[in-house]
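User: Let's play a game. I give you a shape written as tokens, and you guess the letters that built it. Ready? Here's round one.
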């Protein structure tokens, strides 16, 4: 368990990078157009929902557009997969029924019994459970390491390590790992680097360009963005891995359905605008929390005093919509605050347009209690939404009065 950073000084707005839409890199354009050309047959501007299990063949073995059965491929899913690959600057995208289905497929494609992987010491709880309860009985071993400390990661790597699993910023402590440094370490060690990019979203951070082999998303979060669909994604530029992921999708079957693919596509078109609003609101929330007497530490990569602020400023376009903080008065007070907010809804998950509040130790991270990944019980995590910022600040100020 990494130590929490000290109380943060007020951030310097000049330290924040620009979060202008269309910052010249074509991201917002790709989000709206990649994989989403008007339908060839009808001209429909929105990608149609191809809600079909199977596709007619004119002659045995001859399909009309390459589709024979929707587990193997479906046009709505293809549109999403093309868009996801374009957003991450990768060559191959696969869309899964959930982030955990994507994680399971990545591990099966990348590891064999006897292999070892390194996971963050504050990994997403579901990832920890997958590795600890499902992979270990199949003969895979793992170590945890604080990924913001490259020396500690290097020390955790063994000659059987085939995968370094990175999350940055981490959940719920918002530590930031140096993706390029981890990519270099992985290359030297004969391992692959996978980055779970769920917290940052591809708008803020592009791990493949920094040397990562695979990017994973829970598209349930920022990419979908409206808390109305569960989904996952894997993106890579490695042709062999891309083929392996597509083969796993067809063989294991945990694929995104047509309607879920369509909802996710509908969400990701506005990712750039939503992320700008999430980042601006989260920065304002972090600033305000710093001044409240009931607040202990504020964890936000955009604060100049965050221990990895410089790494975050280098590899992220802006600092994200997640803010965590500790409450003076311990677990009892933290639990009370969670039920006192009116706009911030008490709920798990993150990345939707609406603001959420939660108590990690008793909610999202209950499954890691007693393990090395246990989180402080006076900690509250906010997913700052895109409501009017003054309303969000007033709600938090009231709950923490
Ligand atoms: C939610 C989440 C997952 C799991 O995704 P699901 O879509 O819930 O299966 C994985 N990693 C991170 C960082 C997450 O927040």
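Assistant: Ready! My guess for every position:
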């Amino acid at each position: 368990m990494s130590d929490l950073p000290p109380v943060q000084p007020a951030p310097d707005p000049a330290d924040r990078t620009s979060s202008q839409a269309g910052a010249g890199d074509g991201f917002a354009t790709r989000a709206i157009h990649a994989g989403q050309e008007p339908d060839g047959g009808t001209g429909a501007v929105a990608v149609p929902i191809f809600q079909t299990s199977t596709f007619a063949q004119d002659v045995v073995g001859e399909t009309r557009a390459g589709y024979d059965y929707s587990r193997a491929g479906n046009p709505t899913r293809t549109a999403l997969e093309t868009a996801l690959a374009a957003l991450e600057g990768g060559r191959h995208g696969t869309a899964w029924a959930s982030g955990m289905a994507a994680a399971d497929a990545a591990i099966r494609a990348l590891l064999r019994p006897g292999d070892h992987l390194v996971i963050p010491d504050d990994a997403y709880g579901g990832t920890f459970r997958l590795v600890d309860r499902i992979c270990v009985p199949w003969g895979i071993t793992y170590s945890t390491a604080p990924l913001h400390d490259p020396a500690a990661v290097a020390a955790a790597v063994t000659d059987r390590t085939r995968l370094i699993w990175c999350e940055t910023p981490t959940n719920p402590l918002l530590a930031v790992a140096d993706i390029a440094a981890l990519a270099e370490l992985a290359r030297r060690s004969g391992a692959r680097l996978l980055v779970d990019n769920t917290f940052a979203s591809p708008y803020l951070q592009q791990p493949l360009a920094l040397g990562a082999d695979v990017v994973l998303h829970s598209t349930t979060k920022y990419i979908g963005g409206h808390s109305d669909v569960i989904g996952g994604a894997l993106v890579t530029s490695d042709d062999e891995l891309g083929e392996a992921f597509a083969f796993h999708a067809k063989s294991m079957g945990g694929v995104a359905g047509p309607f879920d693919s369509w909802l996710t596509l509908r969400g990701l078109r506005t990712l750039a605008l939503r992320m700008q609003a999430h980042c601006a609101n989260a920065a304002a929330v972090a600033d305000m929390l710093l001044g409240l007497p009931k607040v202990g530490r504020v964890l936000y990569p955009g604060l100049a005093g965050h221990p990895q602020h410089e790494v975050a400023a280098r590899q992220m376009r802006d600092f994200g919509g997640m803010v965590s903080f500790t409450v003076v008065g311990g677990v009892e007070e933290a639990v009370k605050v969670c039920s006192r907010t009116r706009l911030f809804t008490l709920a798990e998950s993150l990345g939707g347009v609406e603001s959420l509040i939660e108590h990690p130790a008793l909610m999202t991270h209950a499954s890691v209690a007693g393990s090395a990944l246990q989180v402080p019980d006076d900690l509250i995590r906010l997913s700052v939404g895109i409501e009017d910022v003054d309303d969000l600040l007033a709600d938090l100020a009231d709950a923490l009065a």
